[in-house]
Amino acid sequence: MKLAVISCIHGNYEALNAVLSDIDAHKADQIYCLGDLVGYGPHPNAVVELIRSLDIPTCQGCWDEDIVEGLNACECSYPSQLAEQRGRLAHELTNNVIHPEVREYLATLPMTL
Questions:
Q1: Tens of pLDDT along 52-109?
Q2: CATH of 3-108, one of 3.40.50.150, 3.30.70.260, 3.30.70.3270, 3.60.21.10
Q3: b/e per residue, 29-68, with b = 16+ CB within 10 A?
């Protein structure tokens, strides 16, 4: 059985489509997603909708948790002040554009698979 494991999509819909095309070309039998569907990228809603439509088993990543529970809920640390500044801006952007039903879906994701 061929397995594909994806993670850290971070709202990058175009990259997700490219990766899914590659997975399809390699004829994977099952895809698993280890979370971080949202954050940084401009298309968190589209990413979540695509993952859901394909019924890919997914667990909650730290960015998914932060959008559900609030900034730094995961207690992750940043390697620098600049990275923290960028993370805060990305969180604000994502938090402002995320649809309520997407936030609800993220809240239902298990912490492990």
A1: 999 999 999 999 999 999 877 677 777 888 988 888 899 999 999 999 999 999 999 9
A2: 3.60.21.10
A3: eebebbbbbbbbbebbbbbbbbbeeeeeebbbbbbbbbbb
